[in-house]
Amino acid sequence: MSSIDPSPAPAAEATIPRRALSPCDQDAARTLWEEYAEAHPVAASANPGFLVDQFGDHAELADELLELVLTGRKTSTASLLAEYVWEGETPPGIGAHTVFCDGHGAPRAIVRTIGLALARFYDVDAEHAWAEGEGDRSLAHWRTEHRRFWERVCTAAGRSFSTDMEVLMERFDVVWAAP
């Protein structure tokens, strides 16, 4: 059963030229991971694998969000759980490490997942929105921008966004940053 969306859909976005994400440099990501593992062997051996990923769906957004992570303002992120299914991927678990690359594909930071929770779009709370560190950090901003983002993501995947979709809220710590 679908719930009624109490807010209007965001206004259509102006067509803004956006630079496509460059693929992550897997060799450089492995090198960054090896540097971390050498400096922190216990932490790395407790969770020996790592993911390689980027924030957003275009290079400018990836760079903007990664900068928020590197400055400590962004300590959480959110994904549609359905995206993992569409892409045949497994969501991260507690303790998982992810090497995040910038919009050019260069690895810049390693984060460790420290918390996970699921909620429907309108059940995501103000605390999570604040921890994501984006815009004015308000829940209203989070809803507007994430809805826009997920509408683009769903459209690109040949799907339709619904506020009934489950959102995977992930809290993380930066454990290593590229020099």
Automatic annotation (TrEMBL):
Signal sequence extent: none
SMART domains: ASCH
Record-annotated ASCH domain positions: 53-176
Origin: domain of life: Bacteria
InterPro entries, per the entry: ASCH_domain, DUF984, PUA-like_sf
Protein name per Swiss-Prot or TrEMBL: Uncharacterized protein YhfF
Species whose genome carries this gene: Nesterenkonia xinjiangensis
